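Record type: monomer structure entry
Structure origin: computed from sequence
Chain ID: A
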Amino acid sequence: MQKISVCLRVGHLLPYSMPDSNTTDFTNPSTFLLLGIPGLEAAHVWLSIPFCTMYTIAVLGNFTILFIVKREPSLHGPMYYFLCMLAVTDLVLSTSILPKTLSIFWFNAREIDFNACLTQLYFIFCFSGMESGIFVAMAFDRYVAICHPLRHSTILTNPVVAKIGLAVVLRGGMLILPYPLLARQWPYCKTNIIPHSYCEHIAVVKLACADIRISSYYSLSVAFFVIGLDMFFIIMSYTQILRAIFSLPTKDARLKTFGTCGSHLCVILAFYIPTLFSSLMHRFGHNVPQHLHILIANMYLLAPPMLNPIIYGVRTKQIRDRLLRLITHNRA
């Protein structure tokens, strides 16, 4: 069962040879050693260029979204509140990974404190779960806006939006809390080397000299509960949305209404397609090199925070207009 490797976005199957039974056990090592991307050590400096570029775009793009929504009172509505939640989540998620990864690439700073490793593990999966929950909230907003437009302002009031946001945060925080708590209690084997660029859950617990089936079972349950239920609710929302759209009398009306969902559908695809691809690769791609697994694991955590503000900035007219107005005003 130790080969079951499921996380919130996808399972990682990282080949690792357990030490023999004669090695000395120790509990809660003071530090772990992150290898970065094993097999590509010589290319770490070159790999840092696209990684750093993606992080820079993610930070600038998401801060721009937050600034524009805060500055423009006309954007103070449910859709943009959820977009701000997504931007904050993306900022925390990318910042949880990239600074340490870049320090490995640039300075060979591979050591990470045991508690810092568990904290990074928690933040990565906690905010991944929150991001999935925010997509459900945004799907619900689109459902109400299209299927019940006259009741949108009375259903999604500011207190309701705040409660939805709080529920998303609590769900992500509480469901992932057992990850570091269980990882902390295991006795660890002699090696403290993690063949990864960040503290991925299964890569950490596989170092334990204990039966980790409870971690495997729990991560599997969380994956089905979070991703499974979220995808179910999103599909149900868009089923009702499509029914409402196809009932409209003209083609122009249908296209215009469906266009209001375009940005949301794009960010959902940017979130779930890499997850599905990586999951299938780990399930069937046993001959795929380890460094490719780790590269993909980094990409599907870093690509959505970079793409989300670009998608909403390009496809959402209100944000695009405010951004252009801001740029032209500063030039003037």
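Annotation 1: Confidence is low (pLDDT under 50) at residues 1-25.
Annotation 2: The radius of gyration is 22 Å.
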